[in-house]
Amino acid sequence: MNQLAQLLNRCVYCRVNIAMRTVSSTVISVLLALSFSPASLALESDSDAPVTWEAEGNSNMTVEGGIRTLTMEKNVIVSQGSLRITGDRAIFEYAVESNTLTRITVYGSPVSYSQKLSEDGDTVLGQSETLKLFTEQESDESIVELIGEASIESPDSSMRCAAIVYMVDLDLIREATGPCTGSLSNQSNL
């Protein structure tokens, strides 16, 4: 009887533990969605602005497999409208056939990212060791991937994780790789 009681206690513990993990995952998903609310979107005019860059070091260009790659080094600054990315090295990838810029990858210690969310001056700020900027083909959303000691701050929240996938047009964190810490300001819609 003692063994049966122990077995039943373990089963109850397992069910509670599994239920708590499910609740924790759901809470984390909800918090990520609330962290960067779509109430303030990136400036629409940014996507229409030309991409500009400057670098103090060497640059080189290669073409391979239909991709033209431009690499720049030393104090690189990339801008498009209010978007600004700074780092030590940047790689631009263009589709040769269409001459379309498909991806920008910036490396640094750290890479810094900033962009206005509204004409009122609200800004999102980010930092990481590597940053990738691209437009996702399926959703046509501008994506910023912050990789390695990633952090992002908006007027309503902040988050630090190993990696963060940020949807620029929606001001929304789609995915975060832990461990993570963060904070939310008081929101009237809770």
Briefly, what is this?
The chain has 190 residues and is an alpha+beta fold.
Structure in words:
The structure is a single chain. This protein has 190 residues and is α+β, with helices and mostly antiparallel strands. It has one domain: lipopolysaccharide transport protein A fold (Sandwich). Helix content is 21%, strand content 53%. The protein contains 2 helices and 10 strands, in the order H-H-E-E-E-E-E-E-E-E-E-E. It has helices at residues 2-35, 44-48; strands spanning 52-54, 59-64, 67-80, 83-95, 100-116, 123-135, 142-154, 157-167, 172-177, 181-184. Strands 1, 2, 3, 4, 5, 6, 7, 8, 9 and 10 form a 10-stranded antiparallel sheet that branches. The longest helix is centred in the N-terminal third of the chain and has 34 residues, at 2-35. The radius of gyration is 21 Å and the shape is globular.
